[in-house]
Amino acid sequence: MASNPAFLEVHHRAMATEFSLLLYGDNKARLHWAAELALEEIDRLEHQISVFDITSEISGINARAAQEEVIVEPGLFHVLQFSKQLHEETGGAFDITVHPLVRAWQFFRKTGTVPDADTLAEALLRTSMDHVHLNPERRTVRFDLRGIEINLGGIGKGYAVDAVTAILRRNGIASAFINAGGSTFYALGTPPEQEGWQVGIRDPLNPDRHLEILHLMDRSLSTSGNYERFIRAETRTYGHILNPRSGRPAEGVLSATALAPTALETDALSTAFFVLGIEGTRKYCCSNAGVNAIQYIREGSERFQLYKIGFEKPETGEEL
Amino acid sequence: MTQKMQSDRRDFMKTSGLLATAISLGAAPSITANAQDSGNLVKVGWIGTGGRGNHLMRKVVKLPNVKVTALCDLWPPNLEAGKGYCANPDVQTFQRHEEMLEKADIDCVVVTSPLHWHGRHSMAAMKAGKNVFCEKTMALTVEEANEMVKVSRETGKFLQVGLQRRYSPIYRKAVHMIYNEGLLGRITLIRCQWNRNYIWRRPHIGMDFPPGKEYDLVRQYYPDFEHWANWRMYWEYSGGLMTELGSHQLDVASWVLGCHPSAVVGVGGKDYWLDDREVFDNVNVIYEFKIEPNEQNRMAFFSSEPPDLVARYQGEEALRKLKTDPYVAKVVYTSIGANAHDGASEQIMGDRGTILLTTTKGLFFEEAAAPKLAWGDKAMSKAELAARAAAVITSGATHDLSMEPQEDQGQPFARPMVGMDFEDIELSDFFDCVRSGRQPYSDVIKGRNDAVMVLSANTAMMQNRRIELGPELYI
Hints:
The complex is a heterodimer. By secondary structure, chain A is an alpha+beta fold. Helix content of chain A is 34%, strand content 30%.
C-alpha cells in the first residue's frame, strides 16, 4: 500500500440499524466503487430476510413451509443450515424460531407485567428449531408444525457483514472494517501500518470504560448485552435476550462477546453465549477451534468477573 | 354484459393464464403448485451477471426444476459474482455470448445486460433456438425493436420482456376493477412519476480498467471504465430515465387505457447532477391517448352517467357524445433525480374514482360527485374534504404526513403475494412458458410498443417538439 493510503468511510441505514464501512486502499476510486457495490448488497439482503416485507423470501418461507417444502436461495439456505447446527450444538440456546416468545414478552412490556405461565407455555410450543427440517440435496425447508416462524434478527446482520466482506474482497479491497450496528464487526486485513483493527468492548456497567481492547485481523467479533435494550416490568427489569429453552430472559451474563472467522458465526454465537453462560460457552469453545469468547458475568450481587475463553494465554477470571 | 365482452374477457383470462385466474378469485397463485405440475428441468444460460442479473438470479434459484447452467458477462468480476449466486458449482462461464450459445447446454436465455446489448443478445439467442427473457427496455431504437420482433417470428422463439407490473397481483386487480367493474368510469388523466434523490451512478472517480487479457473484451466495447460502469448515463448505451424507469409505468398507462399514445410532448433537462452524464436527470412528458369506444372499453370508459348538471347545462347532445365519441386521455410522466417525494406510483383518475398504484399497494379512492359539493344535500364540508387529502397542513400542526404516498387513505384492494414479488412471478411464469410453449403475457409486441412509447418521449425532449405517433407505428 502507498505510504499515503486513500481512506473512505461510508454509512448506510438498513436492517433497522446502521452499517458503517471503513476502507483503506491505494486508490480512492476503487474504494468508492467497492463500497457502493457492498451497500447495494445490504439492501438486497434486507429485502430477502425482512419479516416486515410481506414479499420477502423469509415471509414466503414462514407462510408456506408448514404446508410444503420451500426451495431456498443458497446464501439464505446456508444461514438456515448454520442456525440449525448451532441450535443442536448449543442445546437449543440459539434458536431462530424464538419469535413467538419475543412477541409474548413485547406484548407484556406494554402492560407492565410479565407474561403468565400459560402464555409462555403456548409460545414455547411454537419455539423450536426441531420443527424446522432442511434438505440440503433439494435445498428446501419444511416446518412440521403450523405457527413456526423464522426470524433472523439474531443472525441477519452477520449474514450481511459476510456478504459485504466477500464483495469487498472480490473488488480488490484488502483493508476494511465492517460495522453492523456497533455489535457485529468484521476486520478485513489491517489498517495501514497497524497490527490489527482496534475494537473495544464496552463495560456494560460503566460506558466510559472498556472491558477489553482487541486487535483484529481477518476475524469477526460480535457482542450481545442487555444494557441497551431491556423490558421493564413490575418491579424489575428483564433483559431482551430470551432463553429459548425456558422462555424467560437469560440472566447472569452482562456482556457476551464471540470471536470467529465469520460474522455469521459471531452474530449468532454472541447471543448463544449470552444464554449459555460461562460453562456452556467454555464447552462450545473447546470443541470449536477458532472460536473465542469474552464474558462479563455477575457473580453475586456486587461481584463481576471477566472471563476470556480460548485465547492463547490460559483462561483466568479477572475481577474488575 | 354482452356476449362479445364475455368472450373477450375469457380470452384475456386465457392469455394471462394462471395468474388471471387467481386474481379473479382475489387470491395468489402458488408458484410451487404450478411448477410441480410441470416436472421437466429447464436449463438457463444467463447473459449479464451484474447487479440486476444477480438480483434476478437469486429469485430463479428458488424455483423448482430450473438450473442455471451457463453464465456470460464481459466483466470477469461479474462472472465470479454470478458463480456465487447461481447455485450450481458446475456452471460454465463465458465472456462472449456467441460462445455460450454455441457451446453451453441450455434450453433458454435470460438477458440482463445493459440496454444497448439487449437486441444483440436476444436475437442471437433466438437464432440459436432459445426462448428469451429480456429486461426492459428491450431495445435502444425502434428499428432494433422491430428487428427483434422479426427474429422472434422467423425463429418461432418467444421473447418475454421484463415489464414486471404485468405480473403484479395488484396491477392485475386494478385492470380488472377498471374493465370488468367499471370502477373508475371515464379516465381522463393518469399521473405517474418515479422520483428519486439519487445520483444514479456508481462513483469511481478516475478508475480505469484493470490490466490483464481478461479485460481486453470489455476494453473493446467501451472507451473507458466510466462508460462501462455508468452506461445508464450515456445515450449510446441507454435511454436514461425514460427507458430505465419510465418504461415500466408507461406500460401500465397503455395497459390501463387499452391503447397506444397518439402524441407526446416533453421537456427534459440536466438540472441537478452536473456531471458528465448525457441523459436527463429531470424528465417531464405528456402523452395523448386517443380512446375510441369499442366492445372492451365501452362499459369502462363510455358508460358514465353524469349528474343532472351536465344535462341541464350542456344538453342531451353532450351526454350522447360522452357515450359515443372518442376522447383523448392524458398521461403525465415525471422522473427526477433530486427529490424523492411520492417515489414511484401511478395515479389513475376517472370520473368515479382514483386508483393509486405502487408495487406494494393499491388504493381506491371514491370520487365525490362534483355537483354535490355545490348544491346537493350531501355536500361535503371543508373538513370532510380535507380529510380526504393525504396530508393536512394546518396553521397549528401538520397531520398525517407519511413517507408513503397517501398511505393511510383510500381502500386497499389487493395484497401482494406472500414471499413473492412481481419479479418472482414474471420469472416463474417465463419458465412455465418455456416448458409449455405458451406465449408469455408480456411478449415481444408489448415490449416493442413500450419501447416506441419511451423512445419517442426522448426524441420529443431532445428536439423540443411534439411528436405525432400514428397508429401505423404500432404493431
